[in-house]
Structures are given as C-alpha cells and as structure tokens.
Predict the structure.
Amino acid sequence: MNVLFLCTGNSCRSVLSEATFNHLAPAGLRAISAGSQPAGQLHPRAVALLAKKGISTEGYYSKSWENLPVTPDIVVTVCGSAAGETCPAYLGPVLRTHWGVDDPGHVVGTEAEIEAAFNHAYGIIRTRIEAFVALPLEELVKDKAKLKAELDHIGTLEA
C-alpha cells in the first residue's frame, strides 16, 4: 500500500510525514510525499528534527505531485488552516483524507518558539502515523468507507 502525503511546498510537513511513516511502518506500507508547488529543497529544520529523532532523510527531496514514482492508494493532505492555506486536491481513484497540520516553517519568533512549533508539528504527525500503522488494515481494505472513517478520525488526533 502506497500512501502519499501531500501539501503545497513539500519541504516540511509532508516530508516529516513521509520519513516518519517509512520509519514506523511495517513491510508492505510505503509513504511518498509531494507538493503542488514544490519548494525545491527540504526545510533544514525539518531535516535536523528528523535526524535528532533518529529518522533518516536519505534520498528524500522536494518533488512535484506530477512526477510520482508510484500511484498512491491513499492520499493524505497535511496543509494547515492557520495561514488560510489552500490544500491541493489530488484527482484520481484514491482514498483521500485530510490531516491538517499548521506549517512550522512559517513560524516567526525566537529560536525556542520556532523549535517548539517544529516539535509540536512532529508530535501531531507522529501520533497520527502511529494510529494509522496500528489499524487492522487487512480488514479495513475490504471496507473502503470504514477505512476512510478511521483515517478521517486519525486526522483529528493531537500530540
């Protein structure tokens, strides 16, 4: 099963999601990430945070949703609402869910405030991914409506 984490820039939240998912997921589950308007580089604070958590970012880069290496089975948008962000809408025969996370890359403040924003975003993402990989997926793939309901609920979880 391929999961696409999608946002606009593909430099921070979607990359945090992709790397964390691939770090935690059992065999047979794989995440990719992309953006509708990719920034062209990973946010250095996102990369540093993942390294601090022991999660590799080797091979990850900011990429467009137009050139995906695989077709996703599930698309998870991770755009936030704080800045009035518009989430890209992935078209295609996939299961879609929204797990909004405010972009820590846009936080302005002291070093401590910015670091706290990144840690908060990572905490939300990790909580949701842990819930996802704990789902009885073998059962749920047979009932797409129930799987969608579970994924939508996961999108409401906080750190």
